[in-house]
Every structure is written in C-alpha cells, then in structure tokens.
Amino acid sequence: MTTDIRLLIFDWDGTLVDSLERIVGSMHHAAEVCGIDRLSDDAIRAIIGLSLDKAIVQLYPHLTDDPQQVERMRQAYSDHYLAQEYEPSPFYPGVRDALDNFRSAGYQLAVATGKSRKGLARVLDGHGMQDFFDITRCADETRSKPDPLMLQQILHHCGQTPAQAIMVGDSPFDLRMANRAQVASVAVSYGAQPLSVLLQEQPVLAIDHFAELQCWLAANR
C-alpha cells in the first residue's frame, strides 16, 4: 500500500495517554454523588470518546429529559477528574518519542478529542505541549464524535484532503468518525475497546504498540 499521508490526527484519552481508569473512576463518583446506580467498568469504557454530556445520557437514558441532573453529573465528574489530574495522565510507552519523530519527519499533527477545551488545554500545559500540535479540536466547540465535522474542520485548517490524513483512535466513535469523513483510520488495541470491536469499523491498520505506527508509515511513504 502506497500512501501520501501528510496529516496525523490522534484521539487523546486511551490513544495517546493512559487515562482510562481515571475516567471510569470519575464516572462512578458522579453516579454516587447523584444517587444513581453505578454501571460496570465495561459500560463506561464503551462511551469513552463521546462528549461528556452525550456520554452521560447514553449511559443513563432516563436523564435525557433532566438537564439539571445531567449538569450535576457533569460537574461531579469534572471535579473528581480534575482532582486526579494534579499530575497529568502519562503517555503510553513510546508515544512522546514517536510524536517528536513525526514532527521531525514533516507530518502535520492534530488532536480530535471528546475532552472539553478547558480539559485539553490543562493537560497540554501539564505536558509542556501547548503549541505542539498544528490544531486541536474538542467536543465542546464542535459536534461530538462520531459526527465527521471535527475531522472536516481539522482538514480545512491544515489544507489537506481526506486521502492525505489518517485518524488514530481506540474507540469505534473515532473510527466511525473517520469513515464518515472518508479518512483512513488506525485502531489501537490497548485503549478503551477490544480490537474485535474496532475491527468492525474496517481500519487500515491495527496496532498493539504506538511505535508500530512509525514503522507502518515509514514502510508505506
């Protein structure tokens, strides 16, 4: 396979950083604060990637018509997650070096995340990466995954076509968004969802370790 990939777009949680247990724990905490039954860890991992409000109503459909309770859960989740992020969630092994190598190789780099702008800004600051990416897009400033708008905005900003970009993610929402934007996708097996779920979205590549992406891009450039 020969590629003309110039733009690499990454999900954040579960793809670049190991934050999944903090997300799961924060959702459990929010349920307890609001007097709602806790759901399983797997159920919560299945909504990682969505915007927070959308994730809450998907987990608890009976809250669809109760915006005050959704807001209460959102705030309880955010407060608990922020308390854990005094030290930013760590990158998965090999991620930071690979990102630096991608930058040196001339790729444009972007983030497409279900996090809020405030949340992403905080973690980028914690990692000293405020100006590292060419563009970042967050769920509270566009449409939530799997709507393709987030990717379309990134493509427009970077001046690239869908064929010149690739989306790397750990959830079906990431890969479905890529499919809808006609962008090829790469699935990572170490994140929120098992590889068997991700393969249903027909990624062009599935990787167990982030460094494998470097090898694949180099072989197909």
Structural class from helices and strands?
alpha/beta
Main β-sheet, spatial strand arrangement:
3-2-1-4-5-6
Task: Report mean pLDDT, rounded to a whole number.
Answer: 94
CATH class identity of the largest domain: Alpha Beta
Q: Count helical runs.
A: 10
The helix-strand sequence is EHHHHHEHEHEHEHEH
State the fourth-level CATH superfamily of the largest domain. HAD superfamily/HAD-like
Characterise this structure.
This protein has 221 residues and is of the alpha/beta class. It has two domains: 7-18 and 90-220, Rossmann fold (3-Layer(aba) Sandwich); 20-84, DNA polymerase, domain 1, CATH 1.10.150. Helices cover 44% and strands 12% of the residues. It contains ten helices and six strands; from the N terminus they run βαααααβαβαβαβαβα. The protein has helices at 20-33, 41-45, 52-59, 67-84, 95-104, 117-126, 149-158, 172-180, 195-198, 211-220; strands at residues 7-10, 108-113, 135-138, 165-169, 184-188, 205-207. A six-stranded parallel sheet has the order 3-2-1-4-5-6, with helices on both faces. Helix 1 crosses helix 4 (67-84) and helix 3 crosses helix 4. The longest helix has 18 residues, at 67-84. The protein is globular, with a radius of gyration of 17 Å. The mean pLDDT is 94.
